[in-house]
């Protein structure tokens, strides 16, 4: 059954596990508190979880507003335990964590002022070690790739950039004066940087178009670090798709996706060509990556969405109205541009008392029923009903002269 983790503005970390009821639309939550809140100074800004095949299944990391970060181990019946804690001294007032990721026994964190940190968790007989690096400032979002070989970031006047993870932490020699002058060129890649996007051409008035990336995500895993596909949400509400093999400028620029104050969150769905987008208002949309069209939106949201988490056949969201919501999802239609017959809806909601700031799926594929399974069950039930009906021969039909047979359930 699907499980999600949430963090809130007072520092609480909770697990929300769902089990399905008797119908496809009936889901029951089981909430477990991993850590109690300790005030707004400890507000959770980012969560990360180890995936199923990483070798550290059951670990959760939380980064907080005061610069502290914690790694939990799920443990046994005694409940979760703290594995490691540290403080990011480079996090200044007015800055925040914009990225957190768990890959194998490595924990990556990044702040809005470019403080990048790698924490190598110790094992039996080995101690925990730390490496740091520096990225540009004014970063709004940071993501580690599915393979962990690269990471990407973007921000306020910070173009989308892809880095080699290992090279980002490699020791760097002191640059000469001549090298420093060369690096001041805007198109010069930094040490460890693989690719950097190029801004769009000037607008119709020959004015430079501002760059303000507010959310981003990798679209699919790649074995080659230089071949990546990414999606970036902009402050003006546009969504841009990038392919590092093709060009530095976006291969698609879908305008007006975010209706209120730009894009706040982007999460790739598990279905092909599926991505979920939330603006800074009360809107969540399912987007078809083949044409950039909105397949459907979710109704009944009354609070500004703060975070999204996509799982198999389900979507979780948390909002400023203090609700955790579980949504159904349906894959895009087979033919591009055809009408979406089935649309997602809110299946359940839980009042959380404090404003949740982040939500993440535990990454474990369970036996939750997907929309296809639900449809199959419906078809099987229909077949059973027809099989249960008694056959009516031609003579009976003629005798009844058009009278309809009533089927009782």
From TrEMBL:
Record CDD domains: WDR74
Lineage: Eukaryota, Fungi, Dikarya, Basidiomycota, Agaricomycotina
Skewed-composition ranges (Acidic residues): 374-396
Alphabetized Gene3D superfamilies for the sequence: YVTN repeat-like/Quinoprotein amine dehydrogenase
Assembly behavior: Component of the pre-66S ribosomal particle.
InterPro entries per record: WD40/YVTN_repeat-like_dom_sf (IPR015943), WD40_repeat_dom_sf (IPR036322), WDR74/Nsa1 (IPR037379)
GO cellular component: a single term: nucleolus
One GO term of the biological process aspect: ribosomal large subunit biogenesis
Function text: Involved in the biogenesis of the 60S ribosomal subunit.
Positions of the UniProt region annotated as Disordered: 366-409
Similarity field: Belongs to the NSA1 family.
Name the record gives this protein: Ribosome biogenesis protein NSA1
């Amino acid at each position: 059954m699907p499980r999600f983790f949430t963090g809130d503005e007072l520092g609480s970390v909770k697990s929300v596990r769902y089990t399905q009821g008797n119908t496809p639309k009936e889901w029951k939550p089981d909430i477990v508190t991993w850590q109690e809140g300790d005030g707004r100074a400890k507000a959770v800004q980012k969560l990360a979880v180890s995936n199923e095949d990483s070798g550290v299944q059951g670990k959760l990391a939380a980064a907080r507003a005061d610069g502290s970060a914690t790694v939990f181990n799920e443990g046994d019946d005694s409940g979760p335990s703290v594995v490691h804690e540290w403080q990011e001294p480079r996090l200044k007032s007015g800055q925040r964590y914009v990225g957190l990721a768990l890959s194998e026994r490595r924990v990556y964190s990044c702040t809005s002022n470019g403080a990048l940190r790698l924490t190598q968790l110790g094992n039996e007989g080995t101690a925990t070690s730390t490496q740091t690096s520096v990225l540009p400032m004014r970063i709004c979002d940071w993501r580690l790739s599915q393979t962990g070989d690269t990471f990407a970031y973007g921000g306020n006047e910070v173009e989308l950039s892809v880095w080699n993870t290992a090279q980002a932490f490699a020791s760097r020699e002191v640059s000469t004066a001549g090298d420093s002058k060369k690096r001041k060129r805007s198109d010069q890649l930094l040490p460890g940087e693989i690719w950097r996007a190029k801004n769009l051409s000037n607008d119709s008035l020959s004015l430079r178009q501002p760059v303000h990336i507010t959310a981003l995500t990798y679209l699919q895993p790649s074995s080659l670090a230089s071949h990546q596909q990414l999606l970036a949400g902009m402050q003006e509400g546009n969504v841009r798709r990038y392919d590092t093999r093709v060009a530095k400028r976006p291969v698609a620029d879908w305008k007006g996706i975010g209706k209120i104050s730009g894009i706040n969150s982007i999460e790739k769905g598990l279905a092909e060509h599926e991505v979920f987008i939330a603006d800074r208002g009360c809107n969540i949309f399912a987007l078809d990556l083949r044409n950039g069209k909105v397949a459907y939106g979710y109704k009944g949201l009354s609070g500004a969405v703060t975070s999204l988490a996509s799982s198999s056949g389900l979507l979780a969201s948390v909002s400023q109205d203090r609700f955790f919501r579980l949504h159904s999802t349906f894959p895009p239609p087979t033919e591009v541009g055809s009408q979406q017959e089935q649309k997602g809806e809110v299946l359940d909601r839980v009042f959380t008392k404090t404003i949740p700031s982040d939500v993440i799926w535990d990454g474990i594929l369970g036996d939750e029923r997907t929309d296809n399974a639900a449809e199959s069950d419906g078809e099987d039930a229909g077949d059973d009903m027809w099989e249960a009906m008694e056959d009516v021969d031609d003579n009976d039909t003629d005798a009844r002269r058009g009278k309809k047979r009533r089927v009782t359930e």
